[in-house]
Design a protein that fits this description.
InterPro entries: Fido-like_dom_sf. This protein is mainly α and about 110 residues long. The chain has four helices and no strands. Helix content is about 65%, strand content about 0%. Helix 2 packs across helix 4 (about 80-100).
């Protein structure tokens, strides 16, 4: 049998049904990945706020911090200023994630 490179170029590897099935799987994967990324972002935000607040002496524990940030419920017996600190840290985290980088944040190349 002689090698014919044009043989493979003219032959479809996937049928139209296979292509539609793969496209549907790709869409489902992309949607699930986006949902997972949103959950990871939410967890990262709560962890950042909790850790930063603990460094500053905040008395909220991880579960109370999570409840405050996700549901808006303050913890009983805790200072109001601790809740305000957590909210401010959350707002700063969200703002910084949306803000465009300043020139000082960018890598500056040397001319020459």
């Amino acid at each position: 049998m002689e090698y014919n490179p044009a043989f493979a170029a003219q032959r479809a590897i996937l049928s139209e049904t296979d292509k539609r099935a793969l496209h549907a799987l790709s869409q489902a994967y992309t949607l699930n990945r986006f949902r997972a990324d949103a959950r990871n972002y939410e967890e990262m935000r709560v962890d950042f706020v909790y850790t930063s607040a603990r460094i500053e002496g905040n008395t909220y524990d991880r579960i109370d911090t999570d409840n405050l940030l996700r549901i808006g419920i303050t913890a009983g017996g805790k200072r109001y200023s601790d809740a305000v600190m957590l909210i401010n840290l959350r707002d700063g985290f969200v703002w910084r994630g949306r803000a465009r980088p300043r020139q000082s944040d960018k890598c500056v190349r040397r001319r020459g």
